[in-house]
Amino acid sequence: MSDTPLTWDIPSSWQPALEAARAGGGLLLIGAIDTGKSTLAAVLANAALEAGRSVAIVDADVGQSSIGPPACVGLARPKRPIADLSALAPEAIDLVGACSPARHLLQLVASVGSIAARARAAGAETIITDTTGLISGGMGRALKAAKIRVLDPDVLVALQGEEEVEHLIAPYERRSRPAVLRLRPSPRVRPRGREERAANRQRNFSRYFRGGATLSLDWRQAPIENGAWTGGEPLPGHLRAYAEECAACEVLHAERHPEGVCLIVAGHPDANGLRSLGDSFHGRALVVERGSLDNLLVGLLDETGGTRALAILEEVDFRARRMGLYTPLAEASAVRGVRLGSIQLARDGSQLGTVDVSGE
Question: Which of 69, 83, 131, 332 could form a disulfide with 208 if both were Cys (CB 3.0 to 4.6 A apart)?
Fold first, then answer.
């Protein structure tokens, strides 16, 4: 955008939303991409601050994050009027693990709920939640409906040029809450192309990881939260050799699980051999290919399960059960868990690929 909320002439149609922000409570913003949700969030925050309210902003736009790095839900609590959300330092982040909600709906909703709960616990009187531009199809409906149920906002603020979000707000028209406000996007909003959005993500990742260092982490101290790896009992040598024979490729690490066995392999395993291996363990064989772990974005979790910092997984020593992580976190003594993302990143923030490391 060419100028900022502090220099705007606020559209008169936005006044009901400003009054809602001044009154306090939860406001959830929905709209397609390039409708100005982040700018509206700043405008509403300024109105609430000027009314003497304590304010929290939950940034759930994982693809174009303004508060904290991409692929995360961020929290900020401004103390004075702001020109732009990106000027705010995050008070907390929670790793979702991807820059698109697709295939990460559960984690995105869980992260939004966790960060919003933190805002409420901090005593915020006005909580403004920005969201992604995913509004179409069954996925868009499911995501927005889940966020509304988790957040229970007082006001649902719909930014739309025509009627593109009517299908999302229609179910709430006859309910006692949330109140529904329809706003038109400001003509000052400037559309951004795909390349510009990708460049913005790279800059934000680069800014986050700039000045980082490599930490060594024992995964027995910090087991993985959302994957089979590190959650089971390591197989003894003879059983790992049997697993390698079935898989017909090198097995770097193997664990027994209630559902069968988990393998980390170098190469492409034989599908028939994996089925036979799973049967031998009265379950199935979950497989993670070693290459999918290279440069993987992960979250380092504290004792409460909150995301203490992000890291790039750059090395795994399976024999010593240690991970080498590039991160801005100074030391690892408080890390109690690791959450795997699905993005592979270089240190300069450029995205190298997307992977599925669940083993499913």
Answer: 69
Contact 234, 255 (CB under 8 A): yes
Same domain? For 155 and 29 the reply is yes
Domain-ending residue, one of 208, 231, 246 = 208
Residue, of 191 and 342, whose pLDDT is higher: 342
Tokens of 287: 């497989």
**Helix, strand, or coil (residue 218):** strand
Q: Are residues 237 and 144 in the same domain?
A: no
Shortest CA distance to 199 belongs to which of 37, 84, 85, 348? 348
Pairing mode, strands 284-289 and 296-301: unpaired
Count the domains in the chain: 2
Domain of residue 329 covers 211-360
d(CA 184, CA 75): 26
Of the spans 93-97, 161-165, 353-357, which averages the highest pLDDT?
A: 93-97
| Dihedral class, residue 48 (left if φ above 0, else alpha if ψ from -120 to 50, else beta) | alpha
Residue 215 sits in the same domain as residue 204? no
What would the two tokens of residue 197 be? 């959005």
Q: Pick from 178, 208, 238: which residue ends a domain? A: 208
Pairing of strands 307-317, 72-76: unpaired
Number of H helices, E strands in the chain: 8, 17
Amino acid letter, 69: P
